[in-house]
Design brief:
Elements (H helix, E strand, L loop, with lengths): L14 E3 L2 E3 L5 H14 L14 H18 L3 E4 L3 H7 L3 H4 L10 E8 L5 E10 L3 H5 L10 E5 L5 H6 L11 E4 L5 H8 L4 E4 L2 H8 L3 H22 L8 H13 L4 E9 L22 E9 L2 E2 L2 E5 L15 H20 L6 H14 L11 E3 L6 E5 L13 E4 L2 E4 L3 E4 L2 E4 L7 E2 L12
Parallel strand pairs: 3-7, 5-6, 7-8
Antiparallel strand pairs: 1-2, 3-4, 4-5, 9-10, 10-11, 10-12, 13-14, 15-18, 16-17, 18-19
Helix pairs in contact: 1-9, 1-10, 2-8, 9-10, 11-12
Protein name: Peptidase M24 domain-containing protein
Pfam families: Peptidase_M24 (PF00557)
């Protein structure tokens, strides 16, 4: 077993890790890490089979879908700076373009709808780029089938009029540009002050990223199932006295064993979990009778996981001894799971984002914990961990469509005592309730 040395030297003072002797040269934390990674690898990591790095034709499809949406909305172009949205359409993040900081010289992708002779609509893409950076922009190897088209400007020119006066607009006067939240304010204002009409993200254009392609669903399934499996593997290796920070570190190393890149951890024991997003310093030690709440995310091929499990460590028997006084914990655990189930059943095409939140909230309120459910039910997820649409009871205008992917994460937080949250990733289907993309729901506090 991982973490168990070959005991042959009786003169060495061994410490114990989960009932097994560990040499002084190997700390409990090292044994914990080895155990977690070994158990994770023992699953075979089959969840990775659904993930494929998006090829060029995937990005062509995305841009063409965007072009069709722009045509429907009567928008002349979608403009975006390097960031999450740019990455979605052209596979370049902000740090890949500017490793130091977002700077004052705009580098902007301009995607226009073009109507073909057969009536179809495709994307026609250009890049506004400083002249001295043009070659570097071409060397980015963005996913295009042909050489990229650039509109360049010199340092002393007006960037915005340079784009406005370029030939890409043809006879269009005062082109309408659509931007999203990643476009910095000074660039939006620059466009608006130099001939363009600027509007915010909405309608069919916003829906393009919300509705996932099959390749996106495959990656989301892999990274979220892989994250849940890492939690399950790590749980088997927990021991009394381990700290929240140590669990976070070992869990991150466990996910890295599958090639995933962890980017956040919320690890809370006992009363720490009464704060949904933490706030303590991570030094709390695990004791019998404490719930463990773990909310964690990782990236795979640029896509995010965001899952949460609440459970007992393996050294707490099922059922737990009466001395632990966990009757309310167990009741709340099931109430929250029932609330999640109600949300899943409400996550259907043409339902509203608000209705999904309300379905879960009613279950928790009926159990007497309405005031202890303090946040929205969930959010969209994709290349960002938090994307629109958002599942809250005020979002009555957002309609669910097949292919939209959401978290469902109800929670109950009893201040200064404990907290429970279950979070899974769901995709809206054409018919019936949503499908779980995160390796199956929690079953009991001992089978998360």
């Amino acid at each position: 077993m991982a973490g168990t040395p070959d005991v042959c030297n009786t003169n060495i003072n061994y410490i114990e890790y989960n009932g097994h002797p560990v040499s002084p040269q190997k700390s409990k934390k090292m044994a914990f890490r080895e155990c977690s990674i070994d158990k994770y690898r023992a699953t075979g990591l089959k969840f990775l089979d659904t993930a494929e790095r998006p090829p060029v034709d995937e990005y062509v499809l995305r841009r063409n879908n965007l072009a069709k949406a722009l045509a429907i909305e009567g928008i002349d172009a979608f403009v975006v700076e390097p960031g999450y949205t740019f990455s979605y359409y052209a596979n370049i993040t902000q740090p890949q373009w500017e490793v130091w900081e977002p700077e004052e010289r705009p580098f902007v992708m301009v995607i226009r709808p073009e109507k073909m002779p057969d009536g179809s609509v495709v994307a026609n893409t250009s890049f506004l780029v400083p002249h001295f950076e043009e070659t570097r922009a071409r060397l980015l190897n963005m996913p295009f089938e042909e050489e990229i088209h650039t509109v360049t400007y010199e340092e002393h020119w007006n960037y915005y009029t340079t784009l406005y006066e370029s030939e890409i607009w043809g006879e269009t006067l005062s082109p309408t540009l659509m931007v999203d939240e990643e476009m910095r304010d000074f660039i939006q204002r620059g466009f608006a002050a130099n001939g363009f009409t600027v509007v915010g993200l909405t309608g069919e254009v916003e829906a393009v990223r919300q509705i996932k392609t099959e390749r996106e669903l495959g990656i989301l399934r892999a990274v979220n199932t892989g994250t849940v499996e890492a939690i399950r593997a790590m749980r088997q290796c927990l021991y009394e006295g381990v700290t929240e920070n140590e669990v976070a570190e070992v869990l991150d190393d466990t996910m890295r064993a599958a090639g995933m890149d962890p980017f956040f951890d919320i690890v809370e024991f006992g009363k720490s979990a009464a704060l949904p997003h933490g706030g303590y310093d991570g030094s709390r030690q695990l004791e019998p009778g404490m719930f463990v709440l773990i909310d964690v995310g990782a990236h795979l091929y640029g896509y995010s996981s965001d899952v949460c499990r609440t459970f007992y460590p393996p050294f707490v028997p099922n059922p737990p001894p009466l001395k632990y006084n966990v009757t309310e914990q167990l009741r709340v655990w099931q109430v929250v799971l029932n609330a999640q189930d109600a949300a899943v059943k409400a996550m259907v095409p043409n339902g509203t984002a608000a209705a999904v939140d309300v379905a879960a909230r009613e279950v928790i309120a009926a159990a007497g914990y309405e005031k202890e459910f303090t946040h929205r039910l969930g959010h969209g997820i994709g290349i960002k961990a938090h994307e629109s649409p958002y599942l809250n009871k005020g979002n009555v205008g957002a309609m669910l469509r097949p292919g939209m992917v959401f978290t469902a994460e109800p929670g109950v937080y009893v201040l200064n005592d404990f907290g429970v949250r279950h979070e899974d990733i769901l995709v809206v289907k054409e018919d019936g309730e949503a499908e779980n993309l995160s390796g199956g729901f929690a079953k009991t506090p001992w089978k998360p």
